[in-house]
Design a protein that fits this description.
The chain has helices at residues 16-31, 86-96, 108-114, 130-136, 162-186, 202-205, 212-223, 231-238, 242-253, 257-274, 279-286, 291-302, 306-313; strands at residues 4-9, 36-42, 48-49, 55-56, 60-61, 70-73, 101-104, 122-123, 141-142, 148-151, 154-157. By secondary structure, it is an alpha/beta fold. The chain is elongated.
């Protein structure tokens, strides 16, 4: 088995988490026989200081990088608000020309864009700065909600832990699902999420209600997703009309009671599938009235059936029993 070279660009102000997260994936893979050779490279080959003030020892200059299998560009806090210096853009561009795969983590997308590597490409970055990426580099087609995006040999990821998701996806490309699942288990993370998944889960996208009355209802749903949360039952709980409750949800949460309940159940179903439960068990445990109703939600939100999601992303041992529906 050949050794794959991973060259990671580091520079003053680089985010250590963007370096360490994906780096740990390749380190664990190597311990299990995956064989990756990681090198930290900087523009001039000198050591750098991270955004946490920690000194980072460097292996080589970018000019010394030959033909890396993966060229990984981490982000930094400063570059969404500051323009990437020309010398750093040049340092980003040089190894990229020779790399088989070019990868950015979080705001590392700004470095790729400054180097001209995202012109006409689809890309993502952290949701907080996706608008800035689109505004500063209008030829880049920014997908603000995606966890990671692949366009040809260029891969971009969203913030923080999505760098681990992308590294796991690259590992699966190289070595298949079995090694990837084992690395994910060692790192105590789920099998990598689909790149097309939203950066947000449904409840996180909805701010908490301000009124105590509506908070009572959302807490009721969150605490017991499988309960009777029909519109009539929720309205009766507050002693208001169904029309009034619907208006409360729309005014405060910009959604309907039914969609809020559905979002909570969807998140719980995903968690159950991630833990190895069958699709039928997840539907029952999450409170969906039937497997079919859960399947429709998964198809709409993820483009996958629950069973397909379980096959791709579960890392836990499966609960006894089989479910062959898709």
């Amino acid at each position: 088995m050949s050794v794959r070279t991973v060259a990671i660009l580091v520079y003053d102000g680089v985010s250590l988490l963007d370096v360490a997260g994906p780096g740990e994936v390749f380190t664990e893979a190597t311990r299990l026989g995956g064989r990756y050779d990681m090198k930290l490279v900087s523009p001039a080959g000198s050591d750098v200081t991270s955004n946490q003030g920690i000194r980072v020892a460097v292996d080589a200059a970018v000019s010394d990088v030959r033909e890396p299998d993966i060229y990984l560009v981490p982000g930094a806090d400063r570059y969404p608000s500051e323009r990437v210096p020309a010398e750093l853009a040049d340092a980003t561009r040089l190894p990229a020309a020779r790399a088989r795969r070019i990868v950015s983590i979080c705001t590392g997308a700004f470095l790729l864009a400054a180097a001209g590597l995202l012109d006409g490409k689809r890309a993502t970055t952290h949701w907080r700065v996706a608008g800035k990426l689109a505004a500063q580099y209008p030829t880049c087609r920014v997908e603000p909600d995606a966890i990671y995006v692949r366009d040809g040999r260029i891969y971009t990821s969203a913030g923080v832990t999505s760098g681990i998701d992308l590294a796991l996806a690259l590992l699966e490309e190289d070595h298949g699902v079995d090694l990837t699942r084992e690395v994910a288990r060692l790192l105590v993370v789920y099998m990598q999420r689909s790149g097309g998944q939203s950066q947000f889960s449904a409840p996180l996208q909805v701010p908490p209600p301000q009124s105590p009355a509506l908070r009572t209802i959302t807490d009721l749903v969150t605490d017991n997703p499988s309960g009777d949360h029909s519109l009539r039952a929720l309205a009766d709980h507050l002693h208001v009309s169904t029309r009034h409750l619907t208006r409360m949800f729309r005014e405060e949460l910009s959604t309907t009671p039914a969609r809020y309940v559905e979002g909570i159940r969807f998140d719980l179903a995903r968690a159950l599938l991630d833990r190895g439960h069958t699709a039928t068990q997840a539907a029952t445990g999450a409170g969906f009235p039937s497997y079919e109703s859960m399947r429709r939600v998964f198809a709409r939100e993820m483009g996958l059936s629950p069973t397909a999601y379980r096959r791709r992303f579960s890392t836990a041992q499966r609960v006894s029993g089989q479910d062959h529906r898709s």
